[in-house]
Structures are given as structure tokens and as C-alpha cells.
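hiii so um. not sure if this is the right channel but i have a protein structure encoded as C-alpha cells and i wanna go backwards to a sequence. like what aa goes where. can anyone help
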């Protein structure tokens, strides 16, 4: 079985006979006292070279040790590993020799034993291999030094001796961040200069990212730390905007022993107002890369302006949706009838559908049933009595009945949501005469769009792999219609087999981020995969200007 153990963390010296040099190895030993047999068991469960590797693998757990919510558990040699899951190893026997250790994962045994600080003997071994390391050891706070941290510092120090100064200041997260050493010389000097000017405000938790943000926006660490305390979904630049405008404020509160600051309720409301403003800007198609929209001079006035704009756009979209709904259901309105006091009819406007939802607590609009009607996938039939909704029926074009529910609040009360027997009888009599009419319904005016990575001109574009497209030209792959249809969307989803496009511009952005769009016409076989359409032959119809792209996105967003 697995045992909770005491652990000893030590650094030792080993010799590499091939390179004829000494190197450091960090070893973790597990100790467990077997009371039943009055025996102390010891086992080295983890080894880590100074390069951070073991037998060519990244830092890892041996097969004998596993990590759980209780900490690290150890299986001693000869014990059967309990069958508690795949990662425990099933019914295998725990390894007997270190050479039998197997890679368990990529997680490293870190400094999880605060009592096991770096000992004098560990430091003595380090200095035998790296005598010059005594200077950095003397500058590091010994109270904070443990073996995992020491091994990391050694690993970085060999390539970047400048880590010594950062460690002296206790800035270990910055010192050990490899991204620091990948910065250009100019940017690295900016970081070091900022540290020297602000080191008193820093501690071991200070990150390179926070320093770079302060440099970029000419801010200070105190402001960035305040931003982190209220950690919300917006960026540091947006936080600075709200702060400079006075939209974020703090109030001083008093306890029995001290004073403390807390964000005011007005400040919280301002942040929520800004979130709402940015979301509305996206819906109406404003470019948030433009600082005029992203950082308005007066948030409250701009919020009211964009809200009115969104209202107008939604009204227009709703009107368009309503007009198309009337056109789709018009051929079937002749079946509307009153049977046994029940009005049974096909709804032809959004307002009637909304009333049905409100009275019966149904989700026809929220869950996309209206869109299914517009796509002519199904039909909705309403049953009213004395001018009030009592039930909704879902009818498919093959003549079959889908869902048939009355007041859906019954679900929450543990009751049946089915209409009354009298209502069902009236509907069944109506349903016998009803015949769905699809072939005479108007067809949707479908447009197909394709995104491109680079715009060379208004007629020439570059796609994946720098493949060039031109307006007015037709492009095809070597795969035939039959091959595409046989392969299907999943198997032919490759750029050498098909061209990708979508029915909406919004859908394209779910797959990648193009810089421009064209309208295209599929001329070959068309299959679908993960929301995208694929064809072996397409024609580039026209380039879509940026303003039109915004307008199309607005309509797509509001017609969801």
C-alpha cells in the first residue's frame, strides 16, 4: 500500500566518466516507520541532475511515488501497488532498484518540505563543483533557500551570471524566468533599470510580466499590485484608463484595530458599466483597436450612445427576422382553425412567440427554435384558449410530431407539463388535416464567405501556405466530387484536398483570424466539418469591404 512518509532532500556529487567531470544531483529520500515489523524503511524516490534531467527525461516522479491531495505517497520495493486508477500503476509490484524507475509524469517534486532547508553539507558539495558560487550563496537569504531553488539558480547561473544581482534582491521569479534572457539588449536594460529604481517595492513574488507592463504603460508597481487585487477580466491598460478617469475609487474602512481600503460600490458599478459598454461595441461592430471606442472620454455618455445604437440595430434585425418568418409560414396559415374552443395556429411574428414564451415559461427564442423555423427544419404550432396560450407543438416537415408541452413551470414542481386531455384531443383532430408545405416556401439567400491572411490588392489575396487567390477566378483541387463525398468532412479536412469557407463571417473567426474576406461560390461537392464547409472547387466572387464586414457581423450576431 501507499505510505505517507518523511522526506530528506539532499544535494550530492556524482562523477561522469565519459566527460571526466563532477556534477550535482538532487536526491529525495522517503522514510517510513513500519510499526508492525518495528522497522525503518528508506527509499530514494526522486533524482534530479543539475541540468534538470534524469535518464534523458524531464523532471519526473519515479514509479514508486505518486502525488495525491494528501501529498506524496510512496510504495516500497516488493509491495503491490493498489488498484486505484490508471496513474497508480494498477497491480504492478513497486520497483526494487533505482534503475527500474519509470517515467510517471512531468511534475517535479518541488520545495514541499519547508523543514528541509539547504544544509551546510549541501552547500559544501555545491562549492566543490562550483567554487565561484560562494559569492552568490553569501548574498542569498539562507532562510529562503531550499534545494529545488538552489538547483534552479545553479542551472541559470552557469549561462547567465547576472542572475546573482537579482537573487541578492530576492527576486527569484524574475531571475529564473528564461524569457528575461531572450529579451533584446535594449529591453533587458529597461527591465534592469526599472528594478534598480523600484527594488524596495518588490519582493520574491514580483514577476517579469508586471515589470514589463509598468514599463509599457509608464506606471508603477503599486498601481499594478492594486490592479491584481481586484483581478478582473479586463487588461492593465483598461484598468489604467478607469483609474485615470476616476471611475475606480477606494473607500477607507475601520475595524477595531486598524484602517483598510476597499473598492467602493460605485467603482464596482463603473467597472461593470465598462464591461457592458465594450460588449455592446463588439455587437454593433465598432473596432476596439481604435482608442476612440476602446477608451471613451466620457464612459456614461458613450454607454448611452452605443446602447441606443444597439437598440436600433436589434429592431432592424428583428424586423428582418419577422418578415422572413412570415414568408416561411405563409403557405401553412390556411390550416389555422378553432376546434372545440381551442385556437390552433402557426405563429407568424416574433411578438406572438415571445408572448407564448412568457406565459408558458418556454425557451423557444433562447434555445434557437425560431432559427430552426427560419431554416425550415421544423414548424411551431400554438394552441390558445380564450386568447391565452395553453400549449406548443413542434412539428417536423416529415409529418412527425416532436415536443408537445403546456406550462413548463411544472418541471420545477415535479408535475407533468403535458397539455390537458381536452387540449390534446383538439390538437390531434387538427393535426390529422395538417400537411407541412416546404417545397413552396421561399429559399434562403445564402452567401458563402472565405477569409484570407493577407490582402495584396482589392482583387488578390493570400491564404494558407501563401496560396494566392484572385477575384473572378475558379480554383480546384485534384480530388473529384465522388472522392470528397466518400471521404466526408472529417477525412478530407486538408488544404490539399479542399478549400474552406463558411456561411457566416462570425463562424470563420472561430477557426482562425483572417485580415480580409471575400464572397465565394462553391462549384463542386460540399461537405461540412466542425462548422466549416469544404469543397474541392470554388470561385472567388468579390472582395468584401471592411464596413460591409462589420455590417454582416452585426446582423449575424443579432440574428443568433
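sure thing!! here u go:
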Amino acid at each position: 500500500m501507499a505510505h505517507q512518509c518523511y522526506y530528506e532532500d539532499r544535494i550530492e556529487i556524482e562523477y561522469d566518466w565519459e566527460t571526466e567531470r563532477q556534477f550535482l544531483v538532487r536526491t529525495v529520500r522517503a522514510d517510513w516507520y513500519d510499526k508492525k515489523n518495528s522497522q525503518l524503511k528508506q527509499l530514494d524516490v526522486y533524482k534530479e541532475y543539475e541540468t534538470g534531467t534524469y535518464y534523458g527525461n524531464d523532471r519526473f516522479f519515479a514509479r514508486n511515488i505518486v502525488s495525491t491531495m494528501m501529498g506524496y505517497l510512496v510504495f516500497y520495493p516488493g509491495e503491490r501497488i493498489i488498484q486505484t486508477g490508471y496513474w497508480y500503476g494498477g497491480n504492478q509490484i513497486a520497483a526494487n532498484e533505482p534503475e527500474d524507475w519509470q517515467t510517471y509524469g512531468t511534475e517535479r517534486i518541488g520545495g514541499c518540505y519547508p523543514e528541509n532547508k539547504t544544509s551546510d553539507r549541501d552547500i559544501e558539495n555545491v562549492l566543490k563543483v562550483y567554487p565561484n558560487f560562494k559569492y552568490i550563496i553569501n548574498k542569498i537569504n539562507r532562510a529562503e533557500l531550499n534545494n529545488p531553488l538552489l538547483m534552479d539558480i545553479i542551472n541559470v547561473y552557469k549561462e547567465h551570471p547576472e542572475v546573482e544581482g537579482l537573487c541578492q534582491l530576492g527576486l527569484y521569479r524574475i531571475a529564473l524566468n528564461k524569457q528575461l534572457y531572450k529579451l533584446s539588449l535594449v529591453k533587458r536594460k529597461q527591465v534592469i533599470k526599472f528594478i534598480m529604481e523600484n527594488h524596495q517595492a518588490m519582493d520574491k513574488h514580483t514577476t517579469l510580466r508586471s515589470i514589463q507592463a509598468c514599463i509599457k504603460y509608464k506606471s508603477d508597481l503599486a498601481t499594478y499590485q492594486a490592479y491584481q487585487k481586484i483581478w478582473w477580466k479586463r487588461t492593465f491598460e483598461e484598468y489604467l484608463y478607469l483609474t485615470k478617469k476616476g471611475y475606480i475609487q477606494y473607500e477607507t474602512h475601520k475595524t477595531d484595530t486598524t484602517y483598510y481600503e476597499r473598492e467602493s460600490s460605485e467603482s464596482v458599478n463603473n467597472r461593470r458599466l465598462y464591461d457592458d459598454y465594450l460588449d455592446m461595441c463588439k455587437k454593433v461592430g465598432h473596432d476596439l483597436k481604435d482608442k476612440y471606442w476602446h477608451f471613451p472620454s466620457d464612459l456614461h455618455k458613450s454607454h448611452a450612445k452605443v446602447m441606443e445604437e444597439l437598440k436600433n440595430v436589434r429592431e432592424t434585425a428583428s424586423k428582418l427576422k419577422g418578415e422572413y418568418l412570415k414568408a416561411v409560414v405563409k403557405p401553412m396559415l390556411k390550416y389555422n382553425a378553432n376546434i372545440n374552443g381551442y385556437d390552433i395556429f402557426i405563429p407568424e411574428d416574433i411578438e406572438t412567440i415571445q408572448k407564448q414564451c412568457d406565459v408558458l415559461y418556454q425557451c423557444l427564442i433562447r434555445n434557437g427554435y425560431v432559427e430552426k423555423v427560419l431554416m425550415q427544419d421544423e414548424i411551431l404550432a400554438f394552441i390558445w384558449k380564450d386568447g391565452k396560450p395553453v400549449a406548443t407543438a413542434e412539428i417536423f416537415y416529415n409529418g412527425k410530431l416532436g415536443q408537445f408541452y403546456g406550462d413548463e413551470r411544472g418541471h420545477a414542481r415535479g408535475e407533468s407539463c403535458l397539455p390537458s386531455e381536452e387540449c390534446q384531443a383538439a390538437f390531434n383532430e387538427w393535426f390529422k388535416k395538417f400537411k407541412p408545405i416546404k417545397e413552396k416556401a421561399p429559399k434562403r439567400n445564402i452567401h458563402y464567405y472565405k477569409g484570407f491572411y493577407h490582402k495584396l490588392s482589392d482583387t488578390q489575396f493570400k491564404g494558407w501556405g501563401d496560396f494566392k487567390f484572385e477575384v473572378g477566378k475558379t480554383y480546384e483541387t485534384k480530388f473529384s466530387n465522388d472522392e470528397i463525398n466518400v471521404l466526408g468532412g472529417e477525412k478530407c479536412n486538408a488544404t490539399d484536398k479542399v478549400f474552406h469557407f463558411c456561411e457566416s463571417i462570425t463562424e470563420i473567426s472561430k477557426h482562425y483570424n483572417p485580415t480580409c474576406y471575400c464572397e465565394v461560390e462553391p462549384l463542386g461537392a460540399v461537405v461540412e466539418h466542425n462548422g466549416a464547409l469544404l469543397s474541392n472547387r470554388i470561385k472567388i466572387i468579390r472582395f468584401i469591404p471592411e464596413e460591409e464586414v462589420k455590417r454582416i457581423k452585426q446582423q449575424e450576431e443579432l440574428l443568433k
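oh and Residues 55-60, 83-89, 98-106 have pLDDT under 50 and may be disordered.
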